[in-house]
Amino acid sequence: MSAAGLMGLTIPETFGGSGADYVAYALALEELARVDAGTAVTLSVHLMIAGAILRLGSDVQKSHYLPQLAGGDVIAGFALTEPDAGSDAASIRSTARRSAGGYALRGRKQWCTNGGYAGVTMAMFRTGAPGAKGISAFLVDNALPGIVLEKTTEKLGIHTSNTVDLAFDDVAVPATALLGAEGEGLNGALSALTTGRIGIAAQATGILAACLEASVKFAKEREAFGKPIAAFEGVSFKIAQMATDLDAARLLTWRAAARCDRGERFALEASQAKLFASTAARRHAAEAVQIHGGYGYTTEFPVERYYRDAKITEIYEGTSEIQQLIIARALLGRLE
Ligand SMILES: Cc1cc2nc3c(=O)[nH]c(=O)nc-3n(C[C@H](O)[C@H](O)[C@H](O)COP(=O)(O)OP(=O)(O)OC[C@H]3O[C@@H](n4cnc5c(N)ncnc54)[C@H](O)[C@@H]3O)c2cc1C
Fold first, then answer.
1. Which residue among 1, 10, 200, 268 is buried most deeply as judged by most CB within 10 Å?
2. Relative to the CA of 317, which ligand 1 atom is closest?
3. What is the mean pLDDT of the chain?
């Protein structure tokens, strides 16, 4: 991916990147996910952090990190979730205590994508009172003493994506490690996740595209009752719906990406794209297995992998229920 310029895809050329926009990012992630969804999320998270540094970072942070990320010499990770705080991110407990010349980071971060080989992690810690305003974001070099890789998590799918728990045991970071203003860390994390959702929508779209390709091929080749199974409406209508939902997922993703590129508000559209694409990917991956019959349940065909990979797109970077919450709030306002 480095050789192809993908590790720096959305990083400006002035920092050694490819200077591409978010529509190009959606296209690249869809193509990667069509082949391997775990590889796609590796890149998606890496570029999500690069985007956050670009938006929120100081000049020194940008010139230090962005060229390394663009070249793929350093991989970026993201650490918000904790054992007792996922969707309710404002309730994280890990702390950043002021110390001489900086902060001491303490706590446990769960399911950090890329965490096993990341050189830098955008990590959120509590610097103030409970609630959203007491959280700050830091750029933490993973080689610092006190960062312990506690566990590599085994998962249902996306096996090519690395997922780890990291313990921070009084990790000393300088004050310059702060990303954005103190107390603004949750906003920074949520804005990163908004662009990240375009990536996960594209990932789901890629899985869906792979399901369609495999299903069309198999339905034309496999014969039952003297004809290709594609001749049965019970099979061909599944494929028709799959193709239609694929285009809808793709267009919703491109709309969110294009709005982001034009500098327009795109949080609602990114949530709609992720909600639709991930639901469609999960549903049609199950249909792709069904179309393949018994072969679909074996590892001889790739659809069992698509089925396992699709599920995560409904969970990470905000579950489907959280996307519905964001969409409903955008339409109705906060009612509580
Ligand atoms: C493979 C993998 C990779 C990940 N990578 C990262 C990463 O790189 N960095 C990181 O910080 N995190 C990462 N995560 C964490 C992921 O983002 C969270 O798992 C996700 O946000 C959900 O949080 P949770 O698991 O704590 O579920 P919970 O928040 O406990 O939710 C459990 C259920 O309750 C529902 N729910 C919760 N609140 C509401 C509500 N208000 N209304 C309706 N329903 C609700 C949820 O939708 C869900 O169905 C990863 C997770 C996995 C599995």
1. 200
2. 17
3. 97
